């Protein structure tokens, strides 16, 4: 057997070995991505409806949560971004809609309006939320921290303001984190609803152009 033929056979054997070794690595891998969403709290019993309209927003979440990946706190200065767990939609959108559903069940308002709204469609109460934290941690707790404010949207007067620092224990399983965060948001919704029920119902603004004045102008 010539040297060139031996080299050719050796090359073929080496190529076959490399192909066999790389086969499993290059084979399609299963997609391990899982998608999660917040859910409204299933409050027992229907609340007495209130003849008010509510405006929700603005709602501001920290920039590190403005991503599709689920973020977990692993210490005071370290965050872990999951490679496989994703939010099914932008977290701010999901937060807003879930709060909307929670307050609808708790208050039964006449209308819920999303910020921003037209001046001709101002709600009776405006709810602003500034979120500092909204994530699970390495100890298995879901934390919602920040500040919420209720305003009179007509003059921006603050009717009530409070800090929030809510913690819910997350159970085991992939869905535990999203479920615990949903409970924390549900607890915030209950605090907001309780406060709104204790506030005086805003009175309609007085007409700045009384009928008599308009009539007098028309007679001129």
Number of helices: 4
Helix and strand string, N-terminal first? HEEEEHEEEEHH
Name given to the CATH homologous superfamily of the domain at 48-198: ABC-type transport auxiliary lipoprotein component
Largest sheet features: 8 strands, mixed
Number of strands: 8
CATH architecture of the domain at 48-198: 3-Layer(aba) Sandwich
Q: In percent terms, what proportion of residues is strand?
A: 25-35%
Rg from Cα: 29 Å
Description:
- This protein is α/β, with parallel strands linked by helices.
- The protein has a domain at 48-198: ABC-type transport auxiliary lipoprotein component (Rossmann fold).
- The chain has 4 helices and 8 strands, in the order αββββαββββαα.
- The chain has helices at residues 3-26, 91-107, 176-198, 211-219; strands at residues 34-36, 53-60, 69-73, 79-87, 111-114, 125-137, 141-152, 157-169.
- Strands 1, 2, 3, 4, 5, 6, 7 and 8 form an 8-stranded mixed β-sheet that branches.
- Helix 2 (91-107) packs across helix 3.
- The radius of gyration is 29 Å and the shape is elongated.
- 21% of the residues are buried.
């Amino acid at each position: 057997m010539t040297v060139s033929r031996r080299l050719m056979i050796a090359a073929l054997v080496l190529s076959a070995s490399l192909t066999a070794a790389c086969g499993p690595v290059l084979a399609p891998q299963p997609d391990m991505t899982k998608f999660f969403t917040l859910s409204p709290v299933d409050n027992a019993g229907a609340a007495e409806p209130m003849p008010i309209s509510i405006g929700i927003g603005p709602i501001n979440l920290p920039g590190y949560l403005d991503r599709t990946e689920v973020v977990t706190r692993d210490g005071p200065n370290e965050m872990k971004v999951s490679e496989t767990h994703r939010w099914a939609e932008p977290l701010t959108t999901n937060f807003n809609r879930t709060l909307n559903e929670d307050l609808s069940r708790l208050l039964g308002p006449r209308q819920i309006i999303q910020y921003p709204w037209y001046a001709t469609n101002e709600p009776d109460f405006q709810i602003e939320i500034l979120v500092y934290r909204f994530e699970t941690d390495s100890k298995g707790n879901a934390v919602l921290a920040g500040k919420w404010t209720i305003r009179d949207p007509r003059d921006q007067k603050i009717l009530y303001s409070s800090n929030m620092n809510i913690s819910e224990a997350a159970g085991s399983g992939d869905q535990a984190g999203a479920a615990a965060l949903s409970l924390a948001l549900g607890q915030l919704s209950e605090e907001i609803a309780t406060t709104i029920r204790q506030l005086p119902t805003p009175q309609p603004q007085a007409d700045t152009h009384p009928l008599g004045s308009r009539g007098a102008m028309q007679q001129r």
